[in-house]
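Example (one chain per record):
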Amino acid sequence: MATKKRVLTKKQQKQIKKIAKKNPKAFIIGLVVILVLGLIGVGGYFIYKKVNGGNDHHHDIETGEVQINFLELGNDRIGDSTFIQVGDVDILIDAGSRKNSAETICNYMKNKMSDNKIEYVIATHAHEDHIAGFVGTKEYGGVFDHYKVGTLIQFAKTDSTSQLYLDYCSKVEAMKANGTTVYTADQCVNNPFTLAENITLQVLDQKYYYEKASTENNYSVCCMINQGDNHYLFTGDLEKSGEESLVEKNTLPHCELFKGGHHGSETSNNDCLLKVITPETICICTCCGSDEYASNPALFPNQITIDRMAKYTDKIYVTASYQDKVYKPMNGNITFKCTSGADYEIHGSNNDLILKETDWFKAHRTWNGA
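Predicted structure:
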């Protein structure tokens, strides 16, 4: 709709001329003040745009659009954090890798969000590389300190007794007192959350919501975002017996997007799951070449894992690498975006190379795909 121009009436013009003639100094000072205030306003706007990376939440995310961001976490430690936006609905799955990742995660979300509330947070399991950023440091605080949370969905069971886990629990209790609704994964099965028209967040069933597991990884909350006929699967660090249970307890569809399980470990991403979901695109949150969890360098993503994935797709993307004790982005922050519920696009903040085309892959892995 066109905006009407505001034009001074003849009477108003005469009044201004009269004031200027009667007291020219005051008139000039007034004009200068108005000009300065205008410049401050314009300057403030451009500073805001620069600080916020030029992002405007309502312009970046269209109605019915799903944008999934796999984050670099600001250090050379392996961990998960996935920030998702569906229109005005914000979702955060995990906040690894260490406490000091909280600042990186919060700054990323700040540049995307229009308010200070995350509608849904999912904490998949109680390992440091998935929950430390929720707690944060004494100097900065955690995600739970910087943002309001509407609904928290967390692991139904844990064997953790660590101080980090106890600190996490304390922050969860504080959020509950401030109005956050908290569910465990088993309470959400068969009760999908509507995010927008024809878009849902579905917590999938698996047996380790109810039974004791031999590894904390198998307590992982598993979920899927359904956007029309498109499906995006997140399984935390779920390992083989958990993946077998996931397949048994759910009717899993073909998935346009799969977050590679357990940072690309061979304990996850098993054929029992991959042959059912036949993923088109796989994003892995890891540091290629890191020996953080084993003496074998370049453990993640494992060659066995890559061989399994290569049967279905070569569109594999990885957030970061760690070689010769040097950390650097691989694809960087990876953004998967689908507006129509059909076609989608994927980009990395560093580059758009698929894994097999990277220098790291050519030096350390082989490709046995079709």
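Caption: The first strand starts at residue 66 and ends at 70.
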